[in-house]
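Homework-ish question, so no full write-ups if that breaks the rules, but can someone show me the predicted structure for this set?
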Amino acid sequence: MADANFAPMLAGAHRARAFGATLSGWGLALPATILMLAMILIPTLVAMLLAVTDYQLGARSIQYIGLGNFAELLNDRVFWRAFNNTLIYTLMTVPTAVLLGLGVALLIEADAFGRGFFRTVYFLPVTALLVAMATVWEFILHSDLGLVNQLLARVFGISGPDWLSDPNHVLSSLAFIFVWQQTGYNMILFLAGLKAIPSDLYSAAKVDGADRAIDRFLMVTWPALGPTMLFVVLITTLYSFRVFDTVAALTQGGPANASNVLLYNIYREGFVYFRTGFASAMTMIFLALILLVALIQIHSFERKEKRS
Amino acid sequence: MASLDIVSLSKTLGTHAILKSVSLNVPDGAFMTLVGPSGCGKSTLLKIISGLELQDDGDVRIDGMSVSHLHPKLRDIAMVFQSYALYPHMTVYENIAVPLVLRRLALMARMPLLGKLMPGTAAVRQKIDSDVRTTADMLELTQLLTRKPVQLSGGQRQRVALGRAMVRDPKIFLMDEPLSNLDAKLRVHMRAEIARLHKRLGATFVYVTHDQIEAMTMSTHVAVMMEGEILQVDSPQRIYAEPADIRVAEFIGSPKINVLPGRVREDGALAVPGFTIAGRTQLPTGSQASVGFRPEHITLAQKGVAAPSATIINLEHTGPEVFVHASLEGLGAPLTFKLEPHQAMHLASGDQVGLGLSLGHAHLFDAQGKRAPFMQPVSEVVAGEVRYG
Ligand SMILES: Nc1ncnc2c1ncn2[C@@H]1O[C@H](COP(=O)(O)OP(=O)(O)OP(=O)(O)O)[C@@H](O)[C@H]1O
Ligand SMILES: [Mg+2]
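A: Not a homework solution, just the prediction itself:
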């Protein structure tokens, strides 16, 4: 009898405790949640609302125009130029920065000699502020006085192009600067991934007959780096999509939009021409694009995980 | 089938001499167990034998031929690691197949699509398949071939690691603490399984462990290693019964052997704290020596017989036997000895008991810790020869 009365009481106590745990859980998550709401979700929501209006910064009136902004975008040649440039830029930078980062990490990991030195050298660009470094790059890439063209002229006798003003080269030049910085970052991520591979696996591979480095790379390193690779590709793609500072500092999208990219275009429409509604619509497209990239990559990774 | 000779191997890392001129002969088909405390250089020795690390000096010979200059792949040695070192992204089948694929197929032929186009690949693949299945069958892994290592229990992973070692029929197996990640019960099971495997394959095994039960139960030979040196190589029985060095005597056997420090008297007898052992020794008069008694060689003295007396500190009942820890006057460390439960029934801590020392089983060590013989076979002069001073 006593037991029977006791049971519900016990359950009640359990429930109370569970409730307490839930409450404190929410309590702990609250500050971060508020920050996220304030800094990310609410601005995104505001941009979403603005995207369907004709709002201009400082204007007194605001009018709902439905998908008008998006319709205009479809026929906006500058937008499409920026869109294409962003894609081309990403296609140039991502494979290069990822493979270079991996290569450097492998070289550093392979030989203890000078490890600390090279790690620092390759990581330095990551710590440099790109806007500040832009001046240096401007000098290096200058058409007559620049280091690159001087070198080309003196060593090979070639007169190099004007890297930042020639529409055929400006995007590659910006891509090069991005790779210069991103490689070090990727290298650090890959180094961490490599560190996590148990050295016994390499020993086992050697005894099993993997006498060449390429065999061991294919059998041990490459499969083990899978998750790191996903993260590196994802982050490099996102950073590449978000390119802005070099464009703003070095080319302002020029010449003739040859280096105009999505984010810079948004900035120009929104803060130079004050077309807030229109810029918001572009932001929506930009966000959707980034989301798409992330989803595709995560999805393809999960499928690979399942298959293997 | 091969014999393995290790000839004065030395290895120094930084300023630390890890192996100090280690020599070891492993006869064809032997099960050689290397035991020793952590950090004594067992793994380093195995890595040098397999070719994963290079020695500074000395030679490794298989069937009398030096292999020191050969890559691990060409030494025909298989190795099993403590961590199993299974390739995590491969199935059990693929893991076992790796050594065959790497040996029998060129890089091109291993590629998923390209490989199919290479002539002869299909036939090789077929042979590999049948070899993998035979091995899996032997280790009862057939049901698990499509699983990944993460989906296996510790014992199953261990068997896969064994399979990967066995599949190419190597001359020599090296195993570095292969059972230390398993729970006690599974360890006993795998112990028997590995011993059986050794008999069945007839190959030469070098097995590293710091579990002396493993060493004693599985091996044909035991080598005790300490601080980069091999102190003794012998059969498990002799390692236990006739330790060549006091460090061997102290390392092998659990609970530890009881060591009494002593001094050699003019008449050749040995004075230890509290009494004298009259068996004559060959050691120089006045020199330091020590005598060891294993726990099972000390018991309670018979009633009425004069005997060294000790105070019981505590009793450990393990079930089939009782370990008694007792302090002997003049001796720093307590003595441990083993009684049957009925002998210990009326004992309690604090009791004074007389010790019956089985002198026939005493181990004498000289000042350097090397085994020294008693002049007369002491077994003939039991108990009465102990004089108390
Ligand atoms: N890379 C290294 N650099 C310097 N010393 C090392 C290195 N690797 C191992 N050692 C030292 O070499 C000694 C022998 O190591 P080893 O791994 O062979 O010991 P072990 O007998 O296998 O020990 P355990 O039973 O713990 O596995 C240890 O003292 C260790 O500190
Ligand atoms: Mg070890």
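Now go work out the reasoning yourself. Hint: Chain B has two domains: 4-241, 257-388.
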